[in-house]
Design goal:
Length: 131
């Protein structure tokens, strides 16, 4: 990991991007917050209609990933650890132009982050040229 020793805090007011998808009937939202220079500095994972235990788990995973980014860990290193993870919800993805299937919500988030911010075209089910 190429992390710095000091935290780079996000500005109080920042640009964000929200991706809404449905994974095998389960609605999910992935929110990303950015520094002034356009670098991603935080991620949130929200699943609709899920229990408090699962909601807490995804909140903590996202909080840890965000802290790692703020201390300099590349988003690619974080997301690659989630690729191929298995769990519910999984299956067909609706609402994303380039990702059509995932093995878990974390697999989806990893693909989304890697395609969007790391130019990992090998992970897209739909090539950019078709859009």
């Amino acid at each position: 990991m190429n992390a710095t020793t000091t935290e780079r805090p996000l500005p109080d007011r920042r640009d964000t991007m929200r991706q809404k998808v449905t994974i095998n009937g389960q609605r999910a939202y992935i929110d990303c917050g950015f520094y002034e220079d356009g670098m991603i500095g935080e991620v949130f994972i929200v699943l609709e209609k899920t229990g408090a235990g699962r909601r807490w788990m995804f909140d903590e995973v996202a909080r840890l990933a965000s802290k790692l980014m703020q201390y300099g860990c590349p988003v690619e290193q974080i997301a690659e650890g989630w690729l191929g993870t298995k769990g519910e919800p999984c299956g067909p993805v609706q609402g994303h132009a380039r990702i059509k299937n995932c093995t878990s919500i974390l697999d989806f988030v990893a693909r989304h982050l890697l395609i969007e911010f790391c130019n990992r075209e090998d992970l897209a089910h739909v090539p950019k040229e078709i859009l």
